[in-house]
Every structure is written in C-alpha cells, then in structure tokens.
C-alpha cells in the first residue's frame, strides 16, 4: 500500500461553521453538490471533489464553495449513496471503519466517479478536469488520473491508495501530507516518492508539521496553526491546478 486503509483517525476532527451556497442536484441517481463561480473565468475547466468518509457534509461543501470562489466549477458526488459515516457517529465514537469500508471498494465507487466525469464532460461541457481527493477520495483521484478521464490530481492526507494506483497515473499529481499520520506514514510517504518518480509525470509532496490526518478538511479552525495549515493545503491545490490545468 502507498497509504494505509482508512482507520479511526479518518473519522475524527472538527465541524466547520458556515452556510454552503452551492446547489444540490441528482445526477444519474447520485446526489451531487455543485459550486458555481460567480465569474466563471475558467469556463472550460472544473474540479471534481472526491470526499473523505463523511461525504456530503458541511465541511466538504464549504471547501467546494472555496474552489468555486477561485474560479473553478466544482462537483462533489455522493460516493457512498447516503451511506457515509455520520457526524453523530463521529461524536459518539460509534464507528467500525474496517466493517464500513467493505461496502465502499472500487467496484462500488468507480462507477460513481466515472458517471460524474461523463456528466462533467458531456453535459457541463468541461474540457479539462482537476480532481481533489481528501482521505478516502484520494485513491480515486489516482485511479482516474489516466486515459483522458482526469487531467490533474491532488491528494490531501490520502488513505487506501496502492502503489499500483500511483504507478499508473498519466498526469501531474500533488500530495499534501500531515506530519502525524498513521495512515500516510513517513515510510509510506517515502515509498510513494519512489513510485511517483518512476511515472515520468510531474509530482509534488508537501509535508506540514504539527498536524494530523484529516487536517485539510477537518482541522480545528480555532487553532491558529491548524487553520493556517488547512489554508496552505487549499492553496497548494489551487496553485497546482493553475499551473497544470
């Protein structure tokens, strides 16, 4: 594995305050949250947002809105068909991640990603797609970063990604990592560097100190360092997309 399977740290973190301003639609039977830029200066480019295990919850929707604020039409499909981990379960610690994850393997998730890409290209008229993957979603960025599906990729504290996934990418990939992370460990990060170096693609791994797995989407906004690190992770994605998309 290039990053370990989701574990308890994937179901921890803080809820962020704010009111999402995007719209919820049903795309081929899949609930999908869409953030539309007020001034769409990148009309032929868009971001596919592949979420952590909480799916269409507030933190992710607010991040979608931020990508839209930076000029990118952004699409967040429900990868779990309403079977996501609930924030109540997170608060109560009533989560069996190894059991839950059995229902959300590539056979279940790949078709949702594929139909969302098709919708973006054929219905929305998007010519180039960047994809962001937080935790769980990162693996599916790698899996679709080839064959003209996704053009540019970004991972934040990935989970579940295999070396085969990384070795097969056919486009630029940027990764943002946490110093304290039992899922994307120091050893696995270094192994990923070796794998990526053999792909012939542009790649980048940034490491942020003093933060834990999940910080880029569920960090504590009241902690100045965590807030700063979350902002840096977002800026890394935007800079990567602006460069390669």
Automatic annotation (TrEMBL):
InterPro entries noted in UniProt: AB_hydrolase_fold, Dienelactn_hydro
Segments forming domain Dienelactone hydrolase: 31-245
GO molecular function, one term: hydrolase activity
One Gene Ontology term from the biological process aspect of the record: monocarboxylic acid biosynthetic process
One Pfam match: DLH
Protein name (Swiss-Prot/TrEMBL): Dienelactone hydrolase domain-containing protein
Organism, as annotated: Penicillium angulare
């Amino acid at each position: 594995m290039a990053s370990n399977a989701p574990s308890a740290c994937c179901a921890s973190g803080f809820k962020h305050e704010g009111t999402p301003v995007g719209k919820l639609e049903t795309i081929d039977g899949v609930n999908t949250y869409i953030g539309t830029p007020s001034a769409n200066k990148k009309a032929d480019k868009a971001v596919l947002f592949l979420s952590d295990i909480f799916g269409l919850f507030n933190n992710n929707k607010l991040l979608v809105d931020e990508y839209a604020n930076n000029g990118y039409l952004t699409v967040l499909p429900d990868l779990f068909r309403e079977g996501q981990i609930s924030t109540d379960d997170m608060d109560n610690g009533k989560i069996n991640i190894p059991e839950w994850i059995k229902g959300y393997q590539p056979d279940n998730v790949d078709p949702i990603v594929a139909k969302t890409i098709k919708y973006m290209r054929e219905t929305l008229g998007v010519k180039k797609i960047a994809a962001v993957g937080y935790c769980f979603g990162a693996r599916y960025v790698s899996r679709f970063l080839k064959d003209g599906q996704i053009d540019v990729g970004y991972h934040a504290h990935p989970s579940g990604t295999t070396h085969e996934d990384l070795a097969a990418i056919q486009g630029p990939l940027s990764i943002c990592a946490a110093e304290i992370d039992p899922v994307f460990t120091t050893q696995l990060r270094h192994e990923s560097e070796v794998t990526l170096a053999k792909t012939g693609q542009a790649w980048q791994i940034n490491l942020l100190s003093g933060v834990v797995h999940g910080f880029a989407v569920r960090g504590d906004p009241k902690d100045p360092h965590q807030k700063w690190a979350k902002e840096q992770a977002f800026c890394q994605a935007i800079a990567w997309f602006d460069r390669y998309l």
